[in-house]
Amino acid sequence: MSLIVQKYGGTSVGTTERIGNVADKVAGWRDKGNDVVVVVSAMSGETNRLIGLASDITDKPSPREMDVLVSTGEQVTIALLCMALEQRGYPARSYTGSQVHILTDSSFSKARILDIDNQNVQKDLSAGRVVVVAGFQGVDEHGSITTLGRGGSDTTAVALAAALKADECQIYTDVDGVYTTDPRVVSDARRLNKITFEEMLEMASLGSKVLQIRAVEFAGKYNVPLRVLSSFEEGEGTLISYEDEEMEDALISGIAFNRDEAKLTILGVPDQPGVAHKILGPISEANVEVDMIVQNIAEDSTTDFTFTVHRNDYDKALDILKQSADELGAREVNGDNKIIKISLVGVGMRSHAGIASKMFETLAGEGINIRMISTSEIKISVVVDEKYLELGVRALHEAFELEKSPQ
Ligand code: ADP
Ligand code: ASP
Ligand code: MG
């Protein structure tokens, strides 16, 4: 007998009929003799609807109340799924994040899990019940409800799987695995049978929203076998694990993109020790995360500095930068929030030269201007205008022949 943690995303529980389908699937796993813990998201669109309600009232909601609000979506689905299971003759019990006691820090809207007390879960499993846990939420040491960031139900599932030492953590979603790129953008994207934690971590951090990055981090750290599967069709899905001999010998495992980027530039900054800190210090103090950073070589003892931030933080970052520009005596500040980032990811890149130049050549061939570049051992990212997203991703997918299995 195995212990399996399953997570069903928003689309998979999007209607009461679909919640019924999930109950059938869970029942199937029970019938095969497995213990099952299920984590569910809010019904699709619900979290956005709740965020919309708040913004009808204020543009500066209290972070604490915001988490009280957005965590309610998941409470609806846990109850409905338990009803559907019981109606099918399978005893089940639901828990909110605070009831299972998923203890987090107090960073509302992006809380980190510190500890899980799974005594209740263990007792229910021993009593033959299916345990259904609300994803995306926890509780801090003061008893306040917290949430784990968009897509956070993935992380709830992996954290529970780690705490319970589950045999596998299965993420059921609306695609049947992890693909070489988002199959909604490139129709001949190819499903991967396996991908390493390292590559999946890069894909997630570079914008592939199929798994929340923290879920991948957690799974890697605690060595939780993680699988992405379809809620709607049968199949093996994609296993995310450490590198082994069966891994595909691919140069590039996938293409990720991120639509949430914006870039800011400060021009003509006097080139002195400490300018980078003076520019980026106030940005990070305002809790704005900076992604790529480029500083030009100084000319006439002044330099230019460009960096990217999340699009939601663009206005805030621009205001701060304008203020810093005055203080530093910089010439000009400008920005662009109609840019996106496209990245090639692959551990095979480590031992191969020429990938970057092929990437640049391909983009040039489509008349796409590259605005920023950043590289690491296993990825190359470029920033381009938003309008080139689909064209760029498709051209790169074709140029690197990702639709073909590397044999
Ligand atoms: P859920 O609501 O189940 O959590 P998400 O919308 O968060 O589902 O994640 C699934 C979506 O991720 C897919 O519908 C797909 O459009 C997108 N996606 C992005 N990149 C990839 C990729 N490389 N492979 C598979 N899906 C991807
Ligand atoms: N409901 C939350 C969201 O939409 C969490 C999740 O679905 O993983 O982001
Ligand atoms: Mg998701």
Could you walk me through the main structural features you see in this protein, from its secondary elements to its overall organization?
With about 400 residues, this protein is an alpha/beta fold. The chain folds into two domains: about 5-175, Carbamate kinase; about 255-400, VC0802-like (2-Layer Sandwich), CATH 3.30.2130. It contains 13 helices and 20 strands. It has helices spanning about 15-30, 45-55, 65-70, 70-85, 95-100, 120-125, 155-165, 195-205, 215-220, 275-285, 315-330, 355-365, 390-400, and strands at about 5-10, 35-40, 90-95, 100-105, 115, 130-135, 135-140, 145, 170-175, 195, 225-230, 240, 255-260, 260-270, 290-295, 300-310, 330-335, 340-345, 370-375, 380-385. About 45% of the residues are buried. The mean pLDDT is about 95. Magnesium ion binds near residues 9 and 151. Aspartic acid binds next to helix 7. Its EC number is 2.7.2.4. Belongs to the aspartokinase family. It catalyses: L-aspartate + ATP = 4-phospho-L-aspartate + ADP. Pfam families: AA_kinase, ACT, ACT_9.
